[in-house]
């Protein structure tokens, strides 16, 4: 390796000397020597002392595994790593056409990055004025990088990395960095924690899924009912929900329009009865009081009645029409709203206009987002793009109609957090954030994106309105310190630490809990995310979305300071804290670290049922004999065995005798063998039957067949003993065979058989029976 680097340095020095001579093309001598033709116009002039210094730094970095690669406009990351002794290995610059085409593709709905598309070349030149970094990058161009920081996840394939290589992107993080993934995952929160996602995440539906589309229609109708009840109560109290956030001129103009419509439109009071019935039905379903209701029961409102109700709702809320005798319903409406407020945490932010925000499923920086407040308009907007419907990419989310406003202007909060491990789940929360303002005063009379979207990528192209309050900054951004000062002026300074920050922490933790099982956990991997929140009038934070690769562009004075700090603190956590637990982590605070979960080894699908056989109870032992010859354990009950196959094939197999014949007691004569008679069998009286006795010598091995003398009965019952403790009963058709002389140890066997008779004896139960006495020689 030393020799290789020495040759590289010598070649760089020679090429530098040639460059100083002003040679625009390779010399002819190099072609004759077989060297590679290359242009040397861009090669820097290499000073031997600088080359020696660069080589020493590179050797140290390689030895300590401090080689990094950065892709994208991240000068802060480069500077912080170089300050720690790291050397950059430049990544190949992508083609601008490929980048532009890839950006268009991601614009179709697969990009979850929030980073701005800036040119990184200008940033690199500022941090390498003397060319030393470029020289060291050339020296390590064949070394392996141990740290990757990129602005796109697909740039690095994490499956091909070695264990010691660090990267800043997890695989499959689109499970919560896309609007579709976050919408689906948070519904499973009850399986991970005892929390309700409706307390921090606005209701959200995928309109591409048919079941969720029907659920959205039901939600829209039910929200129309609650909005109507709120409108009636507020009119009685003389309060319009949107007047607090509207300029004086706009309020007067909208008031004049409504006065004209009120004179011509009057809605019947039955609309209030219908709204109260729908709300009561919703409460009954939450309390499970609708379990016993038959499926054949007609709904509260039919499809035609719902269409009439929605049209009348538009007249009352959007056009300002009056309701007949609505004053006598105010008390009932207030009581119903109080009951709904206990079970619906989003009732206060829903407002009365029933506005929903429609988002493409995986776009970022506010692209393609629209607001609508009529059901037919929302459904037509989604149905206009069949491709997005097929992929379930359209997401509709309830718009927060009553957010917290600063000087009558809407804003959102960008909050950073860092995940350093998924098993165990480890989440770091950055204690600094910033606010992004809209350029237009807040109003619900217009649904333009310049009023309702606070993304800097949209607002930076717009001019601030002349009607906006002068207290809102011209660059549309505040730091969290400025916001805390504003809260202090409103007498709500304590709520920042008791409501806002704890609410954002819990929302981030719950979102990560629901996505943990879908992520690929890899050591030496981290990722920085940017969460967007909105605040209600009670300062409760509402999670809107989570972005991967949040922008670090210093677009304003606020972001220039905070984005620099968050990048430096990220490296403190990833590099310094992992080595020294007492190291300074800057603004990051560890808010959640899960206990390590043991992942069971996968052995495949193998279902196994284990158990034991149920045994029959043994019968009680019979009484012992009065005078047994010797004590001997009772042999087990004989089992019926299959007929023993003879060496020669049998023409016919004998059927076993009837079951009653096995009840006959057979007597064993142990007189000659000295074996004690079993105590469980009573002595049998000898029967006066004509018998015939034979003496056989059987081999001591396993008896496969029983040979009888030629003058014995062919059909007989007999016993044999394979082991001293086992006694088996068999029956077979025995073929007579001439006796053979067995050489070797044998067992004497005495066989007594009945002589054939002309008539069966009444007392003989086993005709042709055989009594066998076993004796030892």
Q: What's this model, at a glance?
A:
It contains 22 helices and 21 strands. It has 777 residues and is α+β, with helices and mostly antiparallel strands. The relative contact order is 0.08.
Descriptive notes:
By secondary structure, the chain is an alpha+beta fold. The strands form six sheets. Strands 11, 12, 13, 14, 15 and 16 form a six-stranded antiparallel β-sheet that branches. Strands 2-1-3-4 form a four-stranded parallel β-sheet. It has a four-stranded antiparallel β-sheet with strand order 5-10-8-9, sandwiched between helices. The two termini are 92 Å apart. The N terminus and C terminus are likely disordered.
Give me the Rg, rounded.
Answer: 46 Å
β-strand number: 21
By DSSP (H or I, 4+ residues per run), the number of helices equals 22
Structural class assignment = alpha+beta
Strand content: 15-25%
Oligomer: single chain
Largest beta-sheet characterization: 6 strands, antiparallel
């Amino acid at each position: 390796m030393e020799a290789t680097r020495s040759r590289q340095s010598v070649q760089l020095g020679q090429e530098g000397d040639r460059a100083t001579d002003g040679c625009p093309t390779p010399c002819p001598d190099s072609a004759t020597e077989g060297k590679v033709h290359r242009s040397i116009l861009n090669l820097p002039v290499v000073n031997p002392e600088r080359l020696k210094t660069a080589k020493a730094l590179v050797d140290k970095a390689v030895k300590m595994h401090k080689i990094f690669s950065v892709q994208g406009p991240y000068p802060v990351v480069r500077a912080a790593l170089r300050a720690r002794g790291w050397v950059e290995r430049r990544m190949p610059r992508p083609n601008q056409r490929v980048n532009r085409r890839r950006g268009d593709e991601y614009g179709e709905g697969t990009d979850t990055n929030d980073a701005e598309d800036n040119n990184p070349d200008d940033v690199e030149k500022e941090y390498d004025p003397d060319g030393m970094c470029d020289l060291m990058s050339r020296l390590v161009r064949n070394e392996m990088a141990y740290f990757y920081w990129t602005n796109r996840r697909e740039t690095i394939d994490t499956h091909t990395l070695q264990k010691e290589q660090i990267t800043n992107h997890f695989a499959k993080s689109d499970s919560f960095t896309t609007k579709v993934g976050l919408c689906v995952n948070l519904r499973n929160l009850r399986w991970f924690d005892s929390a309700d996602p409706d307390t921090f995440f606005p209701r959200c539906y995928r309109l591409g899924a048919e079941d969720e589309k029907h659920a959205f229609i039901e939600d829209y109708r039910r929200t129309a009912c609650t909005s109507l009840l709120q409108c009636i109560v507020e009119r009685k109290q003389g309060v319009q929900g949107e007047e607090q956030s509207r300029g004086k001129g706009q309020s007067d103009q909208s008031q004049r329009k409504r006065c004209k419509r009120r004179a011509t439109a009057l809605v019947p009071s039955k609309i209030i009865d219908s709204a109260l019935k729908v709300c009561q039905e919703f409460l009954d379903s939450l309390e499970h009081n609708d379990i016993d209701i038959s499926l054949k029961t007609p709904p509260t409102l039919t499809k035609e009645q719902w269409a009439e109700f929605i049209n009348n709702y538009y007249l009352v809320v959007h056009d300002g029409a009056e309701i007949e005798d609505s004053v006598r319903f105010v008390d009932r409406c207030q009581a119903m709203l109080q009951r709904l407020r206990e079970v619906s945490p989003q009732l206060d932010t829903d407002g009365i206009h029933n506005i929903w925000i429609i988002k493409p499923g995986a776009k970022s920086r506010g692209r393609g987002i629209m607001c609508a407040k009529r059901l037919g308009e929302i459904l037509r907007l989604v149905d206009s793009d069949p491709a997005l419907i097929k992929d379930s990419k359209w997401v509709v989310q309830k718009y927060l109609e009553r957010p917290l406003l600063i000087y009558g202007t809407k804003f959102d909060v960008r909050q950073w957090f860092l995940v350093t491990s998924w098993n165990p789940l480890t989440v770091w929360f950055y204690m600094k954030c910033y606010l992004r303002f809209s350029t237009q005063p807040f109003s619900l009379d217009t649904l333009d994106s310049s009023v309702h979207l606070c993304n800097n990528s949209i607002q930076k192209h717009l001019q601030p309105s002349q009607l906006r309050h002068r207290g809102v900054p011209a660059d549309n951004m505040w730091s969290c310190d400025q916001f805390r000062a504003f809260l202090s002026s409103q007498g709500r300074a304590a709520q920042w630490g008791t409501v806002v920050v704890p609410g954002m922490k819990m929302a981030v933790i719950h979102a990560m809990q629901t996505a943990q099982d879908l992520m690929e956990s890899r050591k030496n991997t981290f990722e920085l995310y940017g969460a967007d929140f909105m605040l209600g009038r009670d300062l409760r934070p509402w999670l809107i979305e989570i972005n991967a690769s949040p922008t670090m562009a210093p677009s304003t004075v606020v972001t220039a300071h905070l984005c620099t700090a968050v990048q430096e603190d990220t490296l403190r956590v990833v590099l310094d804290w992992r080595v020294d637990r007492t190291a300074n982590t800057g603004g990051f605070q560890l808010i959640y670290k899960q206990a390590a979960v043991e992942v069971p080894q996968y052995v495949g699908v193998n279902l196994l049922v284990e158990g034991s056989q149920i045994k029959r109870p043994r019968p009680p032992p019979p009484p012992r004999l009065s005078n047994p010859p010797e004590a001997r354990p009772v042999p087990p009950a004989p089992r019926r065995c299959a007929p023993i196959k003879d060496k020669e094939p049998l023409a016919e197999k004998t059927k076993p005798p009837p079951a009653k014949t096995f009840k006959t007691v057979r007597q064993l004569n142990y007189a000659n063998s000295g074996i004690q008679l079993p105590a469980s069998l009573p002595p049998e009286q000898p029967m006066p039957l004509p018998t015939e006795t034979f003496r056989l010598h059987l081999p001591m091995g396993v008896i496969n067949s029983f040979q009888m003398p030629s003058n014995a009965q062919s059909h007989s019952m007999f016993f044999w003993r394979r082991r001293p403790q086992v006694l088996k009963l068999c029956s077979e058709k025995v073929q007579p065979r001439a006796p053979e002389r067995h050489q070797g140890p044998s067992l004497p066997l005495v066989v007594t058989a009945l002589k054939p008779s002309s008539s069966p004896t009444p007392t003989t139960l086993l005709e042709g029976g055989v009594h066998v006495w076993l004796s030892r020689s």
